[in-house]
Amino acid sequence: MTLAEFKSMVSLSKNEICREIFLENAQTIKVKKEERVIHNLGRIFDATLAISNKKGFHAMSLRDLSENAGLSMGALYSYFASKDELLSMIQEQGRRITRRVLEQQIRPDLAPMQKLKAGIIAHLYLSEIMQPWFYFSFMEAKNLEKKQQKDAIASELMTEQVYAAILREGQRAGDFAPTDPDMTAAIIKAMLQEWYVKRWKYRSRQIDVEQYAGFVLNWVEAFVRPANRPVETK
Amino acid sequence: MTLAEFKSMVSLSKNEICREIFLENAQTIKVKKEERVIHNLGRIFDATLAISNKKGFHAMSLRDLSENAGLSMGALYSYFASKDELLSMIQEQGRRITRRVLEQQIRPDLAPMQKLKAGIIAHLYLSEIMQPWFYFSFMEAKNLEKKQQKDAIASELMTEQVYAAILREGQRAGDFAPTDPDMTAAIIKAMLQEWYVKRWKYRSRQIDVEQYAGFVLNWVEAFVRPANRPVETK
DNA sequence: GTCTATATACGGATAGAC
DNA sequence: GTCTATCCGTATATAGAC
Predict the structure, then answer these.
(1) Which of A157, A196, A209, A219 is best to mutate for the B interface (most B CBs within 10 A)?
(2) Residue B115 belongs to a domain
(3) Averaged confidence pLDDT in chain B
């Protein structure tokens, strides 16, 4: 699947995402006119991600944000009750989208190897489309409040277990070599993370997401497929 | 090589490290009595890493640091001129150690596969011993000032190129399969990073660094060694 | 060398006009 | 709904006693 095909399948326009956030947080957002909320939320999130990914969420003052989003400080507080709440809103929204897209793309009727590949491609393409969010989410996880931090860790492990489960399924079916599924899943996750955390590196090397996906799939297949290769030492 | 063997080879006691920092920054550190400086620097760095790795360097106030290090705020400023300088000192020191250890461990007379393995093990063991520093360095890189940020990026790419160079050497010698060396090195680096960034995950799964190293080496060998496996698509 | 006390600025958050 | 003006806590950094 190409990136373009993926984009047309998932339909994740900024407006749709902001509309969803609006509906989710109807009680905290004081402004009621949908069109206006969507427009301003878009500006707020874009600015937050841009500034935070440069110097960190904590180092971003609300005056910074106000300037970049084109809203006064007073107006900002019509869209969230505190700076921490803004952080939570962004985190939660991204997690929801990730969960939904993975479920959508890893269809139960696929063979294990097809599932594995679909899951890897889906994650890479999604993180390409929403790169600033993925980077933000990764870097700011430890700045969340206790409860939110639990959610972030749970989400991290959940994603990893999606891949581990596919690996186990493939091993039972005899399609995959008997590697340690948790460890293999962890390494796959690390490769996915590499893409959105070190995005600058691949941009300067002129490697796009489709090339990167090709490389990862090749690597995974070489390791997962049973073949004449040294057996796992554990 | 075991972790214990590595430890005895590299001799990286806290005192030695602090002594080195003292000598490097003799002009900014106002206190002159070596023994005292070493003792207090140790406390300052430990506290900085502990607090920052929990909630971020920027979120750590100097009052926090003062309490945890057991020095008054006034005293802290005898050891660094500003909070930013403290950040730089920590970053620079760790980079120097990493560089030195890799050079020491990747001996020129080794065969390519032995070099590759030595480099991977050295990095994993070092990041195990200095885990708080590696985590800190990774997470706080973007909070550095412009000049220091350049250094951090250069260091990141340098380490990666060490592995890429070994891969190229092995390919020329016919020991390695003709994979893309830059891309393979990037993935190796990602696996090394996984270890110190997600340390909590492996602690809870009761996997130690020697087991992790075994897994990574196995995986790398399966991919790098020329064998009956699908040829790289690019 | 280290401490306490303080200067000074900047942060998040809110009140009230429009 | 949005703005300006302001409250008030907390941040870094320093002065000066001991």
Answers:
(1) A219
(2) yes
(3) 94
